[in-house]
Structure formats: C-alpha cells, structure tokens
Amino acid sequence: MKTYTFLIAFVLHSVASFSQPNQAFEEAMKVQIQAMNEVSDAESAQEVSNAFLRIAEAESTEWLPLYYAALIKIEAAFRFDINKDQEFDSAIELIHQASELSPNNSELTALHGYALMGKLSLDPVSRGQSMSPQVMQLFGIAINQDRENPRAVTLMAQMELGMAEFFGSGPQKACGMARIALDLYKTERAKVDESYILPTWGAPTAEELAKKCQ
Amino acid sequence: MNLRLILFCYLFLLQTLAIGQTVLSGRVLDEKGLPLPGVNVLIKGSYDGTTSGVEGEFEFQTQQEGMQILVFRLMGFKTIEIPVDCEGELLLIPNQKLKEAITEMNGVTISAGAMEASDEKKSVVLRPLDIVTTPSAVGDIVGALQTLPGTSAVGNDGRLFVRGGDASEVGIYIDGLRVANAYGTTAGNVPTRTRFNPNLFKGTFFSTGGYSAEYGQALSSALALNTKDLSIRNQGDLSLMSVGGGYSHTLANEEQSITLMGNYFDLSPYQGLVKQDFDFERAPFGWDLEVAAQKKLGKDGLLKVLGRTESGGMKIRQPEPGQEGSGPLIDLRNQYSYAQSNWSKISPKGWTWFVGASISSNSDEIAFDSIQTTRDNQLAHLKASTIRDFSDRVSMKLGVEHFINTYFEALPLQDLKRSFQDGQSFIYTEWDWYLSKKLVVRGGIRSGYSSLTQENWLDPRVSFAFQTSEHGQVSLAAGKFSQAPLENYRVLNKDLKNTQADHLILNYFWNKDGITFRAEGFVKEYSELVRFEGVPMDPVNLRNEGSGYARGFDLFFRDRQTLKNTDYWVTYSFVDSKRSFEKFSTQVQPGFAPKHNLSVVVKHFVTGLKSQLGASFAVNDGYAYTNPNLSGEMNSKTPGFQNLSLSWSYLPRPNLIIHGAITNILGRENIFGYDFSATPNAQGVYESRAIGQPAPRFFFLGIFLTLSKDKNANQLNNL
Predict the structure, then answer these.
(1) Deepest in the core among A129, B83, B195, B495, taking most CB within 10 A?
(2) What are the chain A neighbours of B7 within 8 Å (beta carbons)?
(3) Residues of B in contact with A86 (CB under 8 A)
(4) Number of CB pairs < 8 Å for A and B?
C-alpha cells in the first residue's frame, strides 16, 4: 500500500511538473498584477510594463499580458510627467497586437478607447473634433461586445460627463451609466477568486462618477 | 530498489535543477555611450529578465541553461539579440549599445516651403479645424491659407497667390490627383471661392516652394488636400445659411462608408437686404451634388471614390470708364464636374502602393452683351506610385503619371472655334536619406514629355533638413519647376514651351508646446514666361520671352499656449517681385504681388458663452497698376488693402452650431486697381474707374444641425 502511495505521489508530482507552464503563467501574472497596483512613479510603471511584455513574449498566444502592459502605459501617461503622446501611441500598438490574438474582445476595445481618450485630453481643442466620436464609438462597441463589462460602461460614463460639462447639460446620463457600472462591478467581484487574473480595475472611478448627481 | 531511494533521487535532482541558476549582469548604453534606463532585458522564450536602471545597469537571475538568446528591447530603439551561454553562477555581459530607430515622429522633417495642417504629424502649422474657423475665410480653404506666410490677398480675385506668382502657378491636388478649375468661374472682379468643401478633408499640405518631385505643372506652389478615411457612423447634416442651404447624409459600417451631399445657394435674397456696389442683374446662384465613398479592401487597402457635379451662374453689368450708362451685361453660366478614385495599400513590409485616376471637366458660357463665347476644358490624370522603406534610414518614392488635357473655345454666333489636345507623361523618383536622426537629405528628379510640343524636360530637386536644437531646425530646398502656359494662350500658339522657375529656400522652424515660429527666405527666378502684344482678351504674337524674379522673406508666429483658451497667429510676408510677362515689355511689379503683407488671426473660446470668438486682420501696401496718363508700365500703386473680419460660433447643444461672420467690418473701401478707357477724352486724359469690392461688408449667418444617434456629433467642420 505504501508503495502505491509513493507511486501516486510520484505521478502527481510529475503531472504537476508538466502542467507547470500554465501555472507559472498565472503565478507570474499574479505577481505582476500585484506590482501594477503598487506602481508609484514612471520608473516602476516601466518595470512592471516590461515584466508583462516579457511574459507576453514567452506566451505568444496570450492577450492578457499585452493588455496589462498597455494599461500601465496609459495610466502612467495620465499620472506621470513623461512623453504622453508617445506612451499612448505605444499602448495602442500593444492593444492592436493583443487584438490579433483575441479579436472582438470587449476589454481590449474599451482599453483602446481609453488610450484614445488620453490622446484627446492632451489637446481637446484640435483633437476633439476627430477623436471624440472615435472614442465614443469604441466604448459603444466594447459595451456591445460584452454587456457585462463594467469598464466599458465606466469609461463611457466618464466621456459623457466630459461632454455634459463642456456643453453645460446635466450629469444625469453619466451618473446613470456609472450606477449601471457599479452593479456590473458587484457581479464581477462575485467571480473573483485566488486564480482570477482578468481585469478588475475601475470601480473607484465609477463610484466617483455616481457621486456627481447627489 | 527501494522506492524511498528513487523518490530521494528524484527530489534531489529537482533540487539540483533549481539550484542551476545563472545571474546575468551588465550595462546598456545609447549610441553616445550614455546610460540607457528602461530597457527591457530578457531571455528569449522565458519570463526571466529585468529593466535597466538609471545607470543603464541590469542584473537578473535565470534558471535557463545552456545557450540562450539575450534580448535588449526599448521602444524607439533597434532591438539587440545576443547569444549567451548560461553556465556557471555569474555571467558578465559586455556593454551593449542600442541604436535609436529613426521614425516619422523623431526624425527631422524637411520644412522648407512646407506648411502642413494635420492633427497627427509634427511640423504642423495649422490644424484642419483652423481652416474652417478663420473669420476672413468664411469656410473657404484658400481663404484660410491666405493668412499663412508667402501668400497675398487679392480681394477682387479670391484665388491663391504665392510669392509673386499668379494664381495659375498653384497646383491643387486631391489625394495626389490633380484638380483642374478648382475655383468657381467668375466674371467682372467678383471674387471666387474653392469649389470643394473643407469638411471633405482630413489634412492639408501647402507648399510655397521647393516641393517634392511628386508635384509638377506648378511654378510656385503645391496644395495637396487629403480626403477623410472611413466615416465612423451614420448621420445627417443639415445646414441653413444666409446664402443657401444643404443636406448631407452619411451611411457607415466598419468596412465602408458613403456620404451624399447636396447644396443650393442663391445670393438674391441676401442682395435684396444688403445693398451691393456692383450692379448684379442676377445674383450669383448655383447647386452642387457630391458623393464621397470609402471602402476597406483587404487588411491594409483602402479604396476611395469622390465625385462632384455643379452648375451656377450670374449676370452683372460693369460700367466702362469714360462711358455713359450702366455698361455691358456679362452673363455667365458654368457647369463643372470632378470625379476621382484611388486605391492605396500600406503593407507592413515597408511598401506603400497607390493607383488613382481623376477627371475634371469645366464648361463656361459667357455672353458679353451680344458676343457669346463658350469654353470647355477637360483634364484627366492617371497616376501610379510606390514608396519603399529600405530601412529606417533610406526610403524611395517612384511614380508615373499621364495627363490628357483638352481645351476648346468658340464664338458660336460667328461659327469660329479653336482647340488643342495635349498628352503629358511624367516619371519621377525621390530618395530620402537619413544620415542621422538629425540630418536628412532628399534628392528627386521629375521628367516630363508633352505630345503637343514634343518637348522633353527634366526637373531636379534637392533639399535637406538639420535639427539644430531640441525644438529648432534649419532646412534648405532648391529645384527647378516647369509649367505649361495657360490654356487660352496655348490654343493660340501651340508651339508655346513650358514656363520655368528656379527656387532656392532657406527655412528655420521652431516648435514647442503649442508655440510655433517659422522664418523663411527665398529667391525665385522666372524664365520663358509668356509675352504678347495687345490686350489679354485678344493677345497676339505669343512667345516664351518673359523673365523675372521674386525674392523676399516671411515670418510666422503662432501661440496656442500662453493665453488661456486663446490661439493666435501673426504672419508677415515681404515679396520683391518683378517680371516681364503678358503685355509688359519691361520687368514690372505684378498687380497681384503687394510688397508688404501682414495678417493676424485671433481665436478665443469663451466657456461661459459656449462660443468661439474670432477676429482676423489683413493689411498690405497696395497693388501696382499702370496709369496710361503717366509714362511707363506699372507706374502707380493703389492705397493699401485692409480687412478686419469677426466671427462668432455658438454651440448651444452638442449637435448644433450657429455661426455668424462679418468681413471688412470697418467698411474700408479697398481698391484693387483701376480700369482705364481705351482712348483719351477731349482733354487728352484716359478716364478711370476703380476696381473695388462688391459691397463694403459681407454678412454670413449659418445654422448647422447634425442628426445622429450619437447626439454629441456636430458639424464644426462645416463652418
């Protein structure tokens, strides 16, 4: 009996060793997602973004590391004093690469809209005319691709609020969308467990937006 | 064998594997040997790697063994891959130098002569939106370009005049294909406008000299308009204006889009309200229909189609100097069509392909009292070109073109007619060579052949640009430019050869955070200009005998940064031009080339009013003219031209714009020259009549409404 136990243990270990690549991917992703949430300056943003790009290079069929690398670049361009246009452009480039691996992906479409929204914010007077319809369209497509994607709805709400502020109309529409997004975040949170590595960001933004109407 | 032992051995081996780690360490530098932080250093195919630090240093562990590939990657630099042998504990990597890749964004661009309106590129002088929000332009593309350096406003003409050249010296292209008769036909000193609506275009490239070998048949300037790519949504655009109205409808999906547009204008009601100085018997009127379609073909291909047809006319009486009465009646009717299609493909392997064809067809019927004239001309343009990027440092452009030009004019009542047809073939090539990120040399050559004159010619062009500081650069351009004479001269003398110009341009360009400064000096030598005896309506003895020059400089300053919500630009152009041409036997200053030209445009957005307020001011030192009562040619000068225009764009809702503009608000009586009687009166004096404006001011009011599911769409581009 003991022999069998050892044998089973041996086999299991081997199986575990063989399945390691996938597990290693998840592990590596989790480590970097953790690091992403602790980014505090442009240098650390680049380190984490580079780490995701290394994973992307080794796992050439995974869209998620490219997604996170792009997300960090976008967030860094919003937060830090770097060449913002260049950073948004390279994020869009990464999103295009990711979209080749995973077409019609709502998260990627929404992120593309987010990057373009960043470019728009750098020069709204001259870029607004051509870019704001593109941004709205991307968020619209992202919502259609996955009606449960809270980030697509949150970003759309953010864009709506910007428009409403510019034209002096009320923020009601934006708030309504933000509240829908908050419900979607709740549903999403229920799905999150130890091994969850898909995007979960954006809930605080939706909360901020929802507060505008109180 | 004892299973425990087997297990022990297995675990021990695993342990050993885990211990087999190598530490890689080294430094990454740039071309100059300065440390390069942020470089992604990795072992290919593994997650192992790190990012280089402030000193370019890196150090990381890997569990990979044996021969591996170490990769150094940083955006904007060329990737390095080196083989490494991961044996042992510590592996010191020799210093690695990353070379910067030259891209459209970081490489110096040739700015001599060039002015670009684009949202994307650098070295941009105007944004596409500026074209429609410049008050004096009232929505005309060329009207906005007249606020740029190197141009002069000629108020009784309305066309684009560049650096001492006449309006025909500007070649106008849509998507690289030539447009003939791009301006509406007009008569009797009523200024004209560009036929094409600015909202068709996503970008504009305007050159005042020294331009690419891709453009020919233009002595002074090339104006390249690029149409929009795929529309992104379905929408309807309705416009109601003080001079007419129109509707356009767009249908779009992800693969294709089409826009259909119709407009009608008639100045009669407007002229009923606002008194005109010109004696219009029928105010200018017209309609147009336009279609623009775009379709994605394959992954990187795009097919575009643009078609336009229009019809219009006017009747005007022009009193003649020294004569009683209201003068002869000029009755003008015009029909015009333009169609083009082009296919382009940008392949990721460094090839760009373009194939296109266009046809312009213009027909004028002009009655001058009882004398009726007709004039028809067509221009077909076929073009194929390719761009090849051999590396980030060398690229080549190669193209072939063929033009078919027919011209016909007649006096139907007298049964007199004459015509000509010319076929012109061109081949051109141009090479860009980046010696470094900061220095580029461009050499090009354009060769042409005309079937009518059997003439062969070769136009070499060269330019270079050098980045002198982080935000500043110097460019130099030189070249030879050829252009066939005007069609109404060629039809009289089919042996007329090309007219020619040589350009030399030195440019300084500085651009940082919304502030642009541009200074340019130029010399242009004309030769083989057409001369004749008699009057322009009936020239005799046409020959290539004229010559001349234009030299000067211009300054441009734009600031979108310093004052909040305010954007302004100031332009000063100095042109010293003299030429013997047309009926002038000596070298004279042409009537369309004022010496000093100043223009100021200011736009200010008032958030509280949801409005953009605009003002533009233009002034020059007057137009030369010949007074037959004095001796010599071009012996006099009109008073200086002045125009202050104001505009107000109000955006009450995201999909609604109300736009109002008043040109020449001060009502200055501008004079562009004088007509003189053909013979002196009893006192021996040639009597004169000033050539002025149709009315002191022009008022424009328009309401633009966009109907779309997306309520935020608006028609700002249609202003």
Answers:
(1) B195
(2) 6, 9-10
(3) 75-76, 105
(4) 87
Confidence label for B218 from pLDDT (cuts 50, 70 and 90): very high
CA-based end-to-end distance of chain B: 91
SS3 A61: coil
Alpha-carbon distances of B595 from B148, B548, B637, rounded to whole Å = 15, 15, 11
| Pairing of the two strands B57-62 and B96-98 | unpaired
| pLDDT for the residue B74 | 92
Beta carbons of B648 and B615 less than 8 angstroms apart: no
Using CA atoms, how far residue B224 sits from A31, A134, B142, B149, B174, in Å, is 52, 25, 12, 17, 6
Which of B40, B125, B227, B559 is most worth mutating to test chain A (most A CB atoms within 10 A of its CB)?
B40
Of B458, B456, B590, B579, the closest CA to residue B525 belongs to B579
- Phi/psi for A164 (5° steps) reads -60, -40
Residue B337, phi-psi category: left (phi > 0), alpha (psi -120 to 50), beta (remainder): beta
One digit per residue, pLDDT tens: chain A, 214 residues? 455 555 555 444 444 444 455 788 999 999 999 999 999 999 999 999 999 999 999 999 999 999 999 999 999 999 999 989 889 999 999 999 999 999 999 999 999 999 999 999 888 777 777 788 889 889 989 999 999 999 999 999 998 888 787 777 778 888 889 999 999 999 999 998 888 999 999 999 999 998 887 6
Asked whether B19 and B63 are in contact (CB, 8 A), the reply is: no
Which two three-digit tokens encode residue B77?
Answer: 């630099």
> What letter would DSSP give residue B178?
E
Amino acid at B146: Q
CB burial of residue B369 (10 Å; 0-12, 13-18, 19+): exposed
For the record, the structure tokens of B235 come out as: 């929408």
Nearest to A6 among B7, B42, B46 (CB): B7
Q: What was the pLDDT predicted at B427?
A: 98
Smallest CA–CA distance, residue A47 to chain B, in Å, is 6
To which residue do tokens 């650096």 refer?
B163
Does ipTM come in above 0.95?
Answer: no
Which is nearest to A39 in space by CA: A78, A9, A3, A8? A78
Calpha distance B685→B696 (Å, rounded): 29
Q: Which residue in B has a C-alpha nearest to residue A10's C-alpha?
A: B7
Contact B152, B142 (CB under 8 A): no
pTM for the whole thing? 0.86
Q: Which of A130, A136, A145, A161 is the best mutation test for B, with the most CBs of B within 10 A? A: A130
Task: Compute the distance between CA of residue A39 and CA of residue A18 in angstroms, rounded to an integer.
Answer: 33
State the DSSP string of A166-202.
HHT--SHHHHHHHHHHHHHHHHHHHH--TT--S----
Q: Angle A172-191/A203-211 helices, nearest 10 degrees?
A: 150
